[in-house]
Amino acid sequence: MPMSASEIERLVTEALPGARIELTDLAGDDDHWAAKVTAPQFTGKSRVQQHKLVYDALGGRMGGALHALQLTTAVPT
Q1: Domains of the chain
Q2: How many Å apart are CA 45 and CA 67, to the nearest integer?
Q3: 1, 4, 56, 64: least surrounded by Cβ within 10 Å?
Q4: Is 62 exposed, middle or buried (0-12, 13-18, 19+ CB in 10 A)?
């Protein structure tokens, strides 16, 4: 079963309070998403560490309920 935008947003904001998430459904199927996540928790972390925080927030759903995620991360300015 695919993941809705609201479910992705809920999981990420629960794990990363204050995060801003911009989602785009790339294929119109709730299964292929592009996400830009901007979060204060990313400060001082490498891009790989930032992405890991987002993947950890998704709780192992990548490759299952969430087939593909094109992820961009940023620190708030």
Answers
A1: 5-74 (3.30.300.90)
A2: 26
A3: 1
A4: middle
DSSP-derived secondary structure for 48-60 = HHHHHHHHHHTTT
The token duo for 66 is 């969430």
Residues in the chain: 77
d(CA 61, CA 66): 6
C-alpha closest to that of 37 among 9, 2, 5:
9
Predicted local confidence at residue 2, as pLDDT: 87
Residue type at position 13: T
